[in-house]
Amino acid sequence: MKIFYSAEDIETLASQGVRELIVDENTVLTSVARETAEQLGVNLVTAGQGKAGGSASEAPAVSPQKPRGCQHGPLGGDQGQATAPGRAPGGSSPVVDELIGAVKQLVKHG
Fold first, then answer.
1. Which residues pair with residue 46 across a beta bridge?
2. What pTM value is reported for the model?
3. Spatial separation of the C-alpha atoms in residues 44 and 97, rounded to whole Å
4. Which of 19, 21, 27, 74 is the one with CA 20 to 30 A from 10?
């Protein structure tokens, strides 16, 4: 299973002190994530390769555990989950629902 990294993930890793990330055939980085890694000094190390001239006593590159696959909740409504106070089923607030209704009325009546 592939692990996907975004620029935000790289920023989080850098803020946690990670300076190297092992990249293998199951690791996918967005182009912005690669740029962010370069800007923040996070070295992308290909699996099986170390830094040139590195010694065996150096700490190994960090390969943090990351959730795999889809990282958001289910789409399409409530699906048995409790909604937050002030939220309508489906995740929008009553104010948003009211605004959507008003826009629909404007479109309908021109």
1. 23
2. 0.45
3. 45
4. 74
User: Coil, strand or helix: which one is 23?
Assistant: strand
Q: Taking a C-beta distance cutoff of 8 angstroms, is the pair 36, 7 a contact?
A: yes
* Look-up of token digits 């199951």: 26
Domain boundaries, the chain: 1-69
Q: For residues 27 and 98, give the distance between their C-alpha atoms in angstroms, rounded to a whole number.
A: 43
Q: How many other C-beta atoms lie within 10 A of the C-beta of residue 73?
A: 8
C-alpha to C-alpha distance for 109 and 50, rounded to whole angstroms: 66
| One pLDDT digit (tens) per residue for the chain, 110 residues | 889 999 999 999 999 999 999 999 999 999 999 999 999 999 999 877 655 444 333 444 544 554 444 455 555 544 444 445 555 455 567 877 888 888 888 888 76
Read off the tokens for 16. 């946690």
Q: Are 90 and 78 in contact (CB under 8 A)?
A: yes
